[in-house]
Every structure is written in structure tokens, then in C-alpha cells.
Amino acid sequence: MKEYLEATPWDKRNFLVDTYQLTEYSEAALQQTSETEGHFTLKVPPSADTQNLVKHGFYYVDTLTEPVCRRNRFETVYQEGITFTREYDREEILDIAGEAFKGGRFHRDFNIPDYMADRRYRNWVSDLIDQDQILALQFEDRTAGFFAYEKDRILLLGMHKDFRGRGLAKAFTSACVEEQFRISGYDQLKTSISPSNPASLNVFISLGFRLNGAVNVYHKLNGSLPVGG
């Protein structure tokens, strides 16, 4: 029998149950989720017929758009005093990661408690630190935030709560994108943003990014989570 479920051990360690992502959304693939205990992620195009998904217990959690930008279309916004470093306090970065991403799809999943969703981001950033894919933003002699990247993809951009609401988001994002263009050598960068975060989406669009498609994300829990674990 064809296997439609790909294990996601990076999520299992956070939710303490088996976790999977589906390789397709055929009837056979959906049926496998009913025969397997665990938590499942499925990404489908916005045009997909979702009736069968709902029948098999899947529920909508988010939409992910893909903004892309070519180097020659990038609009730089300069802010004096922003610098980057790979020499930083690990716990400072992890503390930012633990509270800066409250709107993600796992926070919007009613089956997953917030502390598990927070832990997922913290553990993901910890992995990225180990892989040297994090740069800390320095501003006013403090760690003001960080950004994470992989090849031509901007993975995460987090700002310390003390620096939010000060009109710095556009300049911080611009500095991160410019730095990634510089260190990666790619002529085009891309990222992934939920429409539920219009402020971030608008910042990237204002810097020259353009939307390049989207996917809808569905989750399913077959069984239960060990809440309190």
C-alpha cells in the first residue's frame, strides 16, 4: 500500500504525539489519517474542493502566501544604528522566539494549547541557532530581534517586544532582506506570510515583494494530546 504520510519528528517533540504531513489529498491519503493516530498537516491550493477534507475530520487553520522579491526591485529603507551579529546570547534569542509568534497556524489550532505552540517556535529557533542560520539584530546597544534564513528563503523575523510599536518594522525588515541578499548571493528571495498578519505582509509588499501564489493549511487530530506534558 502506498504511504501518504510523512513523519514530522520536529513537531512530535513539541506535541508529544506522532505527527505527519500528507503528500497529497486523495481519498486514499485522507483515509490513512483515519487509520493512524496523531496530528496531521495538509496543504492544498485555494481552488481545492475541501468537502472530502472536512468529511475526514480536517479543519482549516491558515493560509500561507508566498511573497517574492528580485534584487533589482528591492526598496531599501535605511535606519541608522542597525547592525547584525552572529555573536549573541542564545537565551535572549529564544526568549524572543517564545513570545513573538502568537499568530501562527499552531496557535490558531484549537486542539493545541498555546504553550505547545510557543514551544514549537522556541525549539525551531534553537535548531536554527545550532545550524548557524540566525543573525541577531543589534540596535541601541541591545539585541532588538533576529532573522532566520535558509538559502533563498526568509524563514522568520522576530522583534523584541521593547522595540515593537516604534515604527521600526519596515527598517528592520529592510535591513534583514538586504543582509540576506548580501550573504546568500541569490537574485531573488521569498518568504511565507499569513494574511492574518497584514502588518507584516504590507511591510514586505512596500519593500518590493510581490505575491506568488498561496496554499491553504488544514490540520487534523486523530486521538488526543497529552495536555500538561
UniProtKB/TrEMBL annotation:
It comes from the Bacteria. Coiled coil: none annotated. InterPro entries: Acyl_CoA_acyltransferase, GNAT_dom. It is an enzyme of class 2 (transferase). Keywords: Acyltransferase, Transferase. Signal peptide: none annotated. Residues 80-228 form the N-acetyltransferase domain. GO terms for molecular function: acyltransferase activity. The keyword Signal does not apply. Gene3D superfamilies: 3.40.630.30. Its EC number is 2.3.-.-. This is GNAT family N-acetyltransferase.
